[in-house]
Amino acid sequence: MGSREIDLEPGLRELGLARMAEIIKERLRQSQHESWPPRRLLRELIEEELAYRKERLLKRRIDNAAIAKDQPLETFPFDLQTGVKREQIYQFAELDFVREGTNLVFIAKTGRGKTGLASGLLLKALQSGYTGMRQRVQDLLDDLHRSIADRRTKQLLNRLSRIDVLIADELGYLNIGDEQANLFFKLMDNRYLARKATLITTNLDYQDWGRHLKNPLMTDALLSRLRQRCVTINIIGPDLRAPKDPAA
User: Fold this and answer.
1) Among positive and negative, which fits the CA dihedral 200, 203, 209, 214?
2) What is the pTM of this model?
3) Which ranges of 38-177 does DSSP label H, i.e. alpha helix?
4) Domains plus CATH for the chain?
5) Per-residue pLDDT tens for 107-155?
């Protein structure tokens, strides 16, 4: 009675081993052709499954973080943006600031590359297994303000405070109400206590934050916490979005 090849794919898929199920037939043929010992075959299957899961997890983190995977630091136009020190940014990319809970504040006019640099650093952190998220300050505070109505503010603050790297993008571009300013202070205080790294991009110098947040005393307390473990990057350079004159 002839032997019958057993179809392993359905069982592997039911066990949640999607990549193994996809490659099992090819790897079995390869192992027979090259006379692999069973241990090597098993190792090959496990390694491919683990790599597949890591790739999916990273993609999910990037999607949740709301940043572009195809815009890493390596694509930033350092040669055009003379207001940025490439060496300093690549030092940040070693991620000591994440491990130490150091904040980074990018201050510049619009179009200078603040968000691109912050997002590139966040991508590095995600690739190294950290959690992260980018959100515009206005959207972040709108979410927190809406959470008051259904009494989930504490839950949302706790979730945001546990994120390893949070980009609060575009502080200063839109007006902030009194309650929103209070919530921003509470979020930053929670992250300060948790020693989590926050990256803030803004068009405001520090002396203008009190006017924008409409509460000088609270702003002083916020900046005291924020700047205790902080590096400020002032970008004084060209507008990367400025239209190029083809005749130039």
Assistant:
1) negative
2) 0.80
3) 38-65, 86-92, 96-100, 114-127, 137-147, 153-162
4) 10-65 (no CATH), 73-234 (3.40.50.300)
5) 999 999 999 999 999 999 999 999 999 999 999 999 999 999 889 999 9
